[in-house]
Amino acid sequence: MTRQVPIGVLISGSGTNLQAIIDAIDAQVLDARIEVVVSNKADAQGLARAKKHRLCTEVVDPKGFPSREAYDQAVVEILQRRGVELVVLAGFMRLLSPVFVKSYSNRIMNIHPALLPAFPGLRVQKKALEHGVRFSGCTVHFVNDECDEGPIIIQAVVPVFANDNETSLTARILQQEHRIYPRAIQLYAEGRLHVVGRQVLIDHLTTDESQVLIQPPL
Ligand code: GAR
């Protein structure tokens, strides 16, 4: 059996991706152990999910810190104290400073609700709709010093329909986030991810050339 990777999950909000990770561990399709859940917000709904599963939680309120670096250093210390090897950003709505990124180089993952490098930043489902794209989706990537810019691990594509609004597209994308995030972490757990420059090389992949999507359909 693959070892259980000690992970720390960072959240700011509802924590549905955290829940998907918890569920994947429970279903034994993800060889990870959540050592700590850290939130920058005391009222994050995800904290209740963590507590329900008896996970250790920490709230680190940015208000108490003089700088982004000081805040990040405090979070890194919590993660290191708990023996966290891989940091999982699951709706953590703060940019990480180089202090953080250096401490966990190529060991921080983020999930983003768009097909990067298209639509980095915030409210990206709205931006995708306004742009008129036929597909959007989600991306799990390693975090580097630039926002939403690091090497891509896995992506899922969803269609965008004429009658979509921000809510419906967000929900369609979120469903796929819950599938690909545990998968990305499992690939890490299996030691199959190798960052080479901008690329993430994955050991033992199969390819399927028929995986073409056309929207609207032919
Ligand atoms: C998710 O859609 C995630 O992709 C997004 O926040 C949501 C968190 O949902 N993250 C970002 O936009 C990061 N820039 P959750 O709290 O229910 O997992």
How would you describe the overall organization of this protein?
By secondary structure, this protein is α/β, with parallel strands linked by helices. The protein has one domain (5-198): Formyl transferase, N-terminal domain (Rossmann fold, 3-Layer(aba) Sandwich), CATH 3.40.50.170. 33% of the residues lie in helices and 23% in strands. The protein has six helices and nine strands; from the N terminus they run E-H-E-H-E-H-E-H-E-H-E-E-H-E-E. The strands form two sheets. Strands 3-2-1-4-5-6-7 form a seven-stranded mixed β-sheet, sandwiched between helices. Helix 4 links the parallel strand 4 and strand 5 (108-112). Helix 1 packs across helix 6. The mean pLDDT is 97. Glycinamide ribonucleotide (GAR) binds next to helix 1, strand 5 and helix 6.
